[in-house]
Design brief:
The structure is a single chain. The protein has 80 residues and is an alpha+beta fold. The protein has one domain. Helix content is 60%, strand content 12%. A two-stranded parallel ribbon has the order 1-2. Strand 1, helix 2 and strand 2 (40-44) form a beta-alpha-beta unit. It is extended.
Length: 80
């Protein structure tokens, strides 16, 4: 339950940048959703190979969203 002070602070704060630690299955999904929402998104991972795998997962999910026509072609270019 939020206190009166935390409710006041929450009402004036907006999220502008998101940091994601790890770019595995969960981290890549979180980073993708945040980036698609227009947030400045930063990802940290321990090895470049893991970053590459995370981007592969993200691209695959992104392509699948358009293959099933869940998103419009204009939003595809806007978010990627």
């Amino acid at each position: 339950m939020l206190t009166a002070l935390s409710q006041e602070v929450a009402s004036v704060m907006t999220i502008q940048r998101v940091g994601v630690v790890g770019f595995g299955q969960m981290g890549s999904g979180i980073a993708q959703i945040c980036a698609q929402a227009g947030l400045d998104t930063v990802v940290r991972e321990v090895e470049q190979s893991l970053v590459d795998k995370g981007f592969q997962r993200t691209r695959k999910r992104h392509a699948a969203a358009f293959a099933g026509r869940r998103r419009s072609p204009t939003s595809r270019t806007a978010t990627w």
